[in-house]
Input
Amino acid sequence: MRAARAVLFAFAVAVSAPGPALAGSTADVAVEILEATDPVAPGAVATYRIRVTNRGPAPAENVSLSAGLAHPNFPNGPFPPAYLSNLRGPLGWQCISLPLPPPFWACFLPQMAPGAVAEFVGTVVVSGNTQGRANFDFVASVESASPDPDQSNNRVVATTTIASTVPAVSERGGLLLAVLFAIVGLGVVARRT
Output
């Protein structure tokens, strides 16, 4: 996976290449996972909110974000525990989905100003057949062509627990919700006529 990401990063640098970073100019790019659905039931969707920040002091050149499932190690069979679904990012970022094992999203930005923040929302569909797996890891990492004084904040992992059962709505609570929806629905129909 690292080799594939290195090739993509090299491609992004070659395509956008605004020029080499100035000597002595550093850009501390960082990534965080702000929200992650946990636990999640088999067949459900897990959502991850990812934040990329350039903590400066200089602009970050050729910034790349990669996010997706950690390298698959499927001891209980050949099926992955989850599949990438969708990624929404801010304007200016170019994102693609790569089905390489493991699948991941790759996003690129030619230059990120100091103090700039970019947020992404990714969704992952959990397999209906998790084959006894208890969890999976979602990984996000960021790099730039500019020297980075603190690389300890360039990678983050969120472990998502696969719930063996979904908490059930009590019969009484379910009946109450059904009655409430019926009343609201009748009110909408009455207003239309």
The first helix runs from residue 2 to 16. The beta strands are 27-36, 45-57, 60-69, 82-88, 94-98, 104-112, 117-126, 135-143, 155-161. DSSP finds two helices and nine strands in the chain.
